[in-house]
Amino acid sequence: MAWFSDKKQNMDVKRLIGMLRNSDANKRNNAARQLIALGADSAPGLVAALGGKDQALSTFVPQILVRIGVDAIPALSEAIRAREASNQIQAATVLGEIGNSAALPILLQILPSKNYKVQVATALALGKINDKSVMPQLLNTLSDNDPDVRIAVARAIAGFRLPKTYLNLADLLDDPEINVRQAAAQALAETDDPSVIPYLVEALYDSFWWYGREEAMQVLQASIRKFGTQAYAPLAEAMNAKEPTVRRYAISLLAPLKDSRSLEPLQMAFYDPNYDVAEMAATAMIGYGPTAMSIFVEALSSPNDWIREKSVESIAKIGGREAVNYLLKTLNDSESSVRIAAINALGQLKDRYALPALDALAANRDEREISRLARQAIAAIHAG
Fold it and tell me: What mean pLDDT is reported for the chain?
């Protein structure tokens, strides 16, 4: 009779699994509830259905096995022991979602698999189970030859948020594969631990990240940006780097922070011998509004024509009557490019207070270019 009962139960399980394909949602849900209620008795049939190509089953079966939970682990373990890679991947994924440490022995058996997809699924599953006892095996696999495996293991390790593992993750910031580096940066950022910031900022100095790899650099910058003002100190230090590109990236990361401490290093960067760095520093300081006005006013006395010209443009972008007063003074600058920048800026600000000075320049035909630009600025102001 026991044999007959087992056979009948297997038939019931197959019937219920078949009902998961039914177009009637109520019938599907009812079948799912019965399969969950059967628990360990329905698990072997459900696991057998994991490997099929049926879209309905591939959607519902894993969810049901997860709901069955610990009772499904023996059947899932048997699927893994069968050594079919596709079954191992699916079973490992479900075991990760179940999230119970009882699955660790079987998962650790296949972590060194020769199939990288099995390794990836297993590493991610171990990360979801989040049992610290597996850390030695994960750290050992972090040096696997396959980059996809290294990526999966890095993500798994990061989820544990164990400070003693951060240096291991930081090693991947020097990985020969740029996609592994990106994953390592994201993994470190996901720890939300400010102790990883120096590792991320240090990566800015490595040209492998940014030479012809804009997308990778965006990932690294996003990882640093996640820490906000906590990243200030190492970024301020990076503004002293020998490589101009590093200085520019440091400025781009400091600028949105609007941290008052940044004004001093940004002011120094405005005088950088690399004009791209200097211009980026000016743009960053403009974002501080009137607070940065005095920096640009001081720069109007610089012997460097380009600095004075950029100061004029920056003062105009900050705007206001105070800006107009400073710009009017630069109409007497010794360099025509600075005077031209001031005239154009006054036309953009459209403050009628500037009209008398502009009228005088417009009437003076000794410098025809200056006169012409002054008339244009006057017209812009009148046009409002």
Answer: 93
Q: So what's the pLDDT on residue 3?
A: 37
- What is the tens place of the pLDDT at every residue in 202-212? 999 999 998 88
pLDDT tens digits along 333-346:
999 999 999 999 99
Which pLDDT score, from 0 to 100, does residue 270 have? 97
- DSSP output for 81-117: HTT-HHHHHHHHHHHHHHT-GGGHHHHHHHTT-SSHH
Question: pLDDT, tens digit, for every residue of 227-257?
Answer: 999 999 999 999 999 999 999 999 999 999 9
CATH for the stretch 228-287: 1.25.10
CATH code of domain 292-384: 1.25.10.10
DSSP annotation of 303: S
Residue 6 pLDDT level (bands cut at 50, 70, 90): low
Report how far residue 58's alpha carbon sits from residue 55's, in angstroms, rounded to the nearest whole number. Answer: 5
The DSSP result for 307-353, as a single string, is HHHHHHHHHHHH-SHHHHHHHHHGGG-SSHHHHHHHHHHHHHHT-GG
In tens, the pLDDT along 344-373 reads 999 999 999 999 999 999 998 888 999 999
> What single string gives the DSSP state of each residue in 214-249?
HHHHHHHHHHHHTTGGGGHHHHHHHTT-SSHHHHHH
Instruction: List every span in the chain annotated with CATH 1.25.10.10.
Output: 292-384
Cα 140 to Cα 148, 184, 188, 265, 283: the distances in Å are 15, 16, 18, 42, 46
Write out the DSSP string of 127-165.
Answer: HHHT-GGGHHHHHHHTT-SSHHHHHHHHHHHHHH--GGG
Residue of 297, 252, 248 whose CA lies nearest to 274: 248
Contact yes or no for 285/292 (Cβ under 8 A): yes
Query: What share of residues in the chain are helix, strand, coil (percent, to 5)?
Result: 80, 0, 20
Q: How far lies 5's CA from each of 1, 19, 150, 214, 353, in Å?
A: 6, 21, 48, 64, 99
The separation between the first and the last C-alpha atoms of the chain, rounded to the nearest angstrom, is 98
d(CA 329, CA 240) in angstroms, rounded, equals 33
Whose CA is closest to 122, among 99, 160, 153, 77? 153
| Contact by Cβ (8 Å): 308, 330 | yes
Look up residue 278 and give its amino acid: A
